Amino acid sequence: MRIVRGTFAFLVGIAASMGVPADTARGGVAQPPLPVAGATYKGTIDLSVPFARFLEVPITLTASRDRRVVRFPRLRVYVDCPRGYYAWWTYALPRLRPRGGRFTAHREYSRMRDGHRWRASIDLRAAFTRDAVPGVVGRLRATIWVPRIAAGGARTCRTGPKRFDMAVTTGAPTTRGALRQLRGRAGCLTPGGRGGCTPLRGSLGGRSLVVSPDGRHVYAMGGGAVRAFSRDPATGALTQLDGASGCLAVTGEHGCARASRMHSPNKLAMSPNGTALYVSWTDWFSSSLPPRSGLSVLRRDPATGALSEVAGETGCLDSEGLKGCTRWRSIWDEGAIAAASDGRHVYVGARGLDGSAPRVAMLYVEPATGGVRPPDPAGCPGAQQNPEQSSPCAPLVEPFVITLAPDGRHLYTGGRGYSRDPVTGLLTPVAGRRGCYSVPDPSDPEPPADTCTSLRPFSNSVETLATSPDGRNVYMGDGAGAVGGFTRERATGRLTPIRSLGGCARFGAGAGCSNARALEGARPIAIAPDARTIYAAAYQSDSIVVLNRDRRTGALWQIAGRMGCVAGGNRRQNQTLTCAAGRALKFPWTLALSPDGRNLYVLSDDGIAVFSRRTQ
Prior knowledge:
Layout: E1 9-10, E2 12-16, E3 45-46, E4 59-63, E5 70-71, E6 75-80, E7 86-91, E8 102-113, E9 116-128, E10 135-146, E11 155-158, E12 162-167, E13 179-181, E14 188-191, E15 198-200, E16 205-211, E17 217-222, E18 225-231, E19 238-240, E20 247-249, E21 257-258, E22 264-270, E23 276-283, E24 292-300, E25 307-309, E26 316-318, E27 326-327, E28 337-339, E29 345-350, E30 359-365, E31 372-373, E32 402-404, E33 410-413, E34 417-420, E35 427-429, E36 437-438, E37 453-454, E38 464-467, E39 473-477, E40 482-488, E41 495-497, E42 504-506, E43 514-515, E44 522-527, E45 533-538, E46 543-549, E47 556-558, E48 565-567, E49 580-581, E50 588-593, E51 599-604, E52 608-613
Parallel strand pairs: 2-4, 14-15, 20-21, 26-27, 36-37, 42-43, 48-49
Antiparallel strand pairs: 1-3, 4-5, 6-7, 8-9, 9-10, 10-11, 10-12, 13-52, 14-52, 16-17, 17-18, 18-19, 18-20, 22-23, 23-24, 24-25, 24-26, 28-29, 29-30, 30-31, 32-33, 33-34, 34-35, 38-39, 39-40, 40-41, 40-42, 44-45, 45-46, 46-47, 46-48, 50-51, 51-52
């Protein structure tokens, strides 16, 4: 009988109730205790051919509370042999007694089958991890000696040794970063005060929300307007500004100030000094194709939070050059906006000059007003010869997600990284395989040459990006149910997938990721200022997922229990009964943290949800 060669998954579950161990590592160094996260730990291991293939039933490893005894179940192993033969065996390991968090085992077996004597052995070397993400790492090797059968001759089938990483999937025990929605009306803002929330003028339901760098104000889009809120620094509660200062809209309805050069807003971005708000917009009633679009610059009063349009040509860009705006290329309605940390440049998801070919386009910022102006074509290499080819001013790339490293040296999009010149703002692709990344197509029988880093845990293209405040990691989400981490080289900008346990978090685990509950449809992610927690808004689960981050390795781990997520909407339908209950969380589209790290704000179809965040 033959089996097909390929990549097999070695699934392992680990159920453990582990407390503080008294073990001491070699050399007398005390080993940190394995964190406690409820009654059980579970995890998965991926191993490649020629190792064992376990079918439906996962292997369960159990450990005593003090980690002094480890028990394995019977292991049914299928081993791929030379010349297409296979052999299998059922192994049984004795109770193992770890020393210093380490355990080893060697077992030999012998039995008669079809008149021939078969021999087998299994070797295990493993240890409990000392990282913030609890789990087991080790090596496992199985050997079967096939006797001489007919003319086949005797042969030896070995697996390895094969290294494995197993991350437990029931959550990190810490409560750092846990969320609590503010009580009463202060916990949410909705049109008309629905759901016992604070009433606001007009409607929201937009997909962009920002907090000012000084933490005094919050701005959200929706209902064809940009709405302004003051923030209580002590509680984080929001209050919409009074009168016309509370919103800016093209129609001026609901008592809003009237915007003369802005139409239906799409995305928002704040300048680093907090004096300017950049708003991309689309005129959906225009007859042109693509629709008329542009970028408006709004001046922010740091004292009151009120917004007003910046006058002159630098105050707005318009694809048709109307109302005194600078004529410029069309902007994608879902294109991202990002302002460089040095305040010199703004990057926008835009179209080519003929309305096609998506790209990330660079704009210069006027220091005095915060206004923007396109670069001179003479300063863009290659733009004069062919204005539609990829240039350092507007490279061809998917423009729907953009993030910049905190030091401003690199910019990342949904498919590629770029080195940024801090003086000119020009972008140069990061060289090599680690300068770009793509999601493999499992249905493609002949995939193209692997020229970019493969996003193995992802099932969709990259739909969200965030860079850690320390600049060490870049995190991506696929909009389906996975968030993956990458280590960033500060000098070159190249990205390498995190190989340690918890390098990615995924709904239902798999692909070497830690399990994350209620992560269906995760799109926007936000990283706390202390770089210890990552929050993901999952629109299919109507939930906010809380992931701890190991600042040394970048690994992700969901908080255990109900504090690991907050869910609203129909929680039973979305299988989020293990999450804390929240309000105003139907289809959460975006989220933002206050600069002091004390509050998280979530913009959904319902309104704005306000949370306090545990920082210790």
